[in-house]
Amino acid sequence: MASPTAAGVPGTPAASAPRKSVTGTRRTVAALFLLPALVLLGALVVYPIGYSLVRSFYNADGSGFAGFDNYKAIFTDDGIRTALKNNVIWVVFAPTVSTALGLIFAVLTERIRWGTAFKLVVFMPMAISMLAAGIIFRLVYDQDPDKGVANAVWVGVHDTFARSSAFPNAHPGRESPLKPEQGGFLTTAAVHTGRTVALPLVGVAPDQMPDGAKSAVAAKPDPGKITGTTWQDFTRGKGVGRLGAPDPSELGYDGMRIEAVKDGKVVASTKAAADGTFTLPATADGARLRLPASNFKQPYNGVDWLGPSLVTPAIIGSYVWMWAGFAMVLIAAGLAGVPRELLEAARVDGATEWQVFRKVTVPLLAPVLAVVTVTLMINVLKVFDLVYIIAPGSSQDDANVLALELYRKGFSEGQPGIASAIAVFLLLLVIPVMWFNVRRLRREERR
């Protein structure tokens, strides 16, 4: 008797209805569920890409076919070439520095108790929008040390080792015995021992005078020496004070350097006391007195972070501040999966911590580092907000990137054809990097 489950017999599993999908729904039903997502994908992704591609072959007003002229402009227009060069700098340095800092933070905070709190602080900038970060760093990089944090720190460090002059705006007044000379001032006549010299100056605001300055006094003659006074020869109030002579309300130039120059050589030098008085030895007899330019050096005002030469590195620094935390979190997750037995075995074999890090930790983290670096490369190719907000108008051309140039061509200069060509060119730059990232992820899944 034939088996009831034999193949080809009606009612057997082999003759049953066609198999359904894993979810138990028909393909048409599944397609209907996917249709809204496909429509959105087409409207928000496929259509803009297609339209940009078509528009890139037309002229500015879209009335005529321009061929590849818009693409030629990418490599001939000075602004676009600068943007392309800056994009190369961004792609090379921003992901590399962010990934390196993320690796360092992840490794160093692995063994400390407050590592979680540190990671939270480093990751916190990720919660800030690019617009807000741009505004923050526009203030950080402000040229005025009283406003910009970067220059406040830089000026503080500089002034610790090289103090600025307290008299940057001082200059001779009326009937002064001084004349300008190489940024400083020189007496018109020679000086001799046993006589006093008056070196009056004006131009220093009362609140800018040195803290230790005292009321200026007239120097007393000394037979074997040259004495004198240098002071602020200005008294507030109309009709009061004597010109060319110290008054009780006038302050001495505390710390003013005075040099005795004879035949072009400095034969003696000194500094004025708090009351402005000074004394030179007999070797200065017959010399002329010089107030050197170092007395009138303008205060150090820091670095022009947003100037043409430093604006791109400065903006990259703000990007690293935001994204180093992202790299750190991903690398820390990969580090948690590293077999500790391998690290301990290397230490037992006598490897130093640096050797363990370089020859064991980094090679094991290579897949994670590659994914982080490639992800950041894709991100920096599209950077726009930070450059647009941080770079001032005077140096925006020097900080230009492709995304910003796309915006300027399309909306400021009325050249949508070139803007579309830049958009397509950016897409072509991103696709290989995305393909590399996806391929690596699939390879990791198969392992």
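Above is the first protein from milestone M3; the second protein from the same milestone is given next.
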Amino acid sequence: MARRPEGPPPPPVVQRVRLRFAKRGRLRFLSHRDVARTFERGLRRAAVPMAYSAGFSPHPRISWVGAAPTGAASEAEYVELALAATVEPARLQAALDAALPPGLDVVGAVEAEGAGLAERIDASRWVVRLPGVAEPELRGAVAELLSRDVVEVERATKDGRRRFDVRAAMVL
């Protein structure tokens, strides 16, 4: 016999809202999971009418696209929210931004249309600052990097050290 949770199913999704947020200052040291938990608390504080998954452990329907590495600041992180009621994106942005701690700043909100965010993003742009490296030296190093077909780096993983081709992930 199949187990079913008690009670009615959750309300359907009536709107999807795409948010752009920044991770700044000391909050750049938050892990992705910490950011997700902080957003969930902020959504509750801002009384955002979230749509929930069905099942025995319902959770808010939130879609994250990638994650800024712990320690990296970001001006353009994206998340998509599934809502159970229609909300004006600008009002949601203001309410959620007020409910989040300074350093996690909601900088944009639009109604999501078409394909999901994960299917739409295929690259990201990074700005890397290297204090003490002269610009001509840096330009030469970047030109050398981009001229190669393969650039392997070695990383420690839980299964030991592995080599990865980082050049394949770079687009111009």
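Note on the second protein: Residues 15-119 form a domain with the Alpha-Beta Plaits fold (CATH 3.30.70.580).
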